[in-house]
Amino acid sequence: MHTPSGTSLPVVPAALAPVLPSRYEVPGHRHHRAGPHGPLEPPAPGAGIRLTSEALPGLETMAPVDEDSVWLHDALLGPHSADIVRYLGLARSTGGPVLDLGSGAGRLAVPFARHGFAVEAVDRDGPALERLGNWARRIGPQVAGLIVTTRADLTELRLGSDYRLALLAGAMVSAVPPQARPRLLREIASHLGAGGALALDYTAHLLPGLVAEPQRTWAFQVPRFDGIDEWVVARQDFDLRTMSERITYYTARTGKLSTERVVLTTDKWIVDGEHLAAELHSAGLHIEGRRRHRIDERTESVLLVCRTDD
């Protein structure tokens, strides 16, 4: 889920990585976009910048804007690829068909089809679904024939089939507005067959940590294999009043002759575990299993497996 907040900035001479956000300036503009957190201002150079090559908590739901941003998308989801194994294991116990909500370009849908599961992949991004279809067809007709793609926004989802397993993976639940989440969960629950399950994961932020550090900045290099050197500074801005989060990605892509700078944003919601549990219960689902993974001293990843109450 993403909203582009700017276009490529003027070409400048290649600079040493990482390129800090203060270097991103558009003549005549102090910010690219205003949002729920107020004007968008890059942080000061070096202020609280965390250099890391490991999991980037909370940054995993960005979808690619164009072909060049696919590398960043893959880098953000890379640390979470182990969830495919867990979700496949669950699918083997529930059976198919599988509903992949917020599927993107098929990170889960295509591996599931390769393992013989029928999958409906739902996403609002048409180009992502097109890439998913191309990937499946390259593997072969047997895989492509098991995947159905549906372009839809999760806030307006209307399902026409029943499923044994529904997935909200990659912290996709945090991209659904809180006021739309109860209806989405009810819609999913009403289309789960007997013995079916809903599996979802989200990033849990400890409240004292958000109060102490409402802005966090991460710098990391994007692994690329096309001759482009790409560094990203990602800034998280948390708003406890609205329980929302904005992530701004300041990207510098350096080739042999020039450097391109792009600014992207994604808006998300801070998920409260107790509220989510109550919404699941109201939708007719109970939490059968909960798996926690500590990311740092104030953040953890939570995976929930839910079953219908019947």
Note the topology.
Blueprint lengths: L2 E2 L4 E4 L21 E2 L2 E2 L9 E3 L18 H8 L5 H12 L3 E4 L7 H6 L4 E5 L2 H14 L1 H4 L2 E5 L11 E6 L12 H9 L2 E14 L1 H6 L2 E8 L6 E11 L4 E11 L4 E11 L3 H10 L2 E12 L2 E10 L2
Parallel strand pairs: 5-11, 6-7, 6-9, 7-8, 9-10
Antiparallel strand pairs: 1-14, 2-14, 3-4, 10-16, 11-12, 12-13, 13-14, 15-16
How far apart the termini lie comes to 33 Å
Show unreliable segments.
1-47
Secondary-structure element string = EEEEEHHEHEHHEEHEHEEEEHEE
Specify the helix fraction band. Answer: 10-25%
Short description:
22% of the residues lie in helices and 35% in strands.
Task: Describe the 3D structure.
By secondary structure, the protein is an alpha/beta fold. Helix content is 22%, strand content 35%. It is built from eight helices and 16 strands. The strands form three sheets. Strands 1, 2, 5, 11, 12, 13 and 14 form a seven-stranded mixed β-sheet that branches. A hairpin with a 4-residue loop joins strand 12 and strand 13 (244-254). The chain is globular and about 60 Å long. The two termini are 33 Å apart. The relative contact order is 0.20. Residues 1-47 have low confidence and may be disordered.
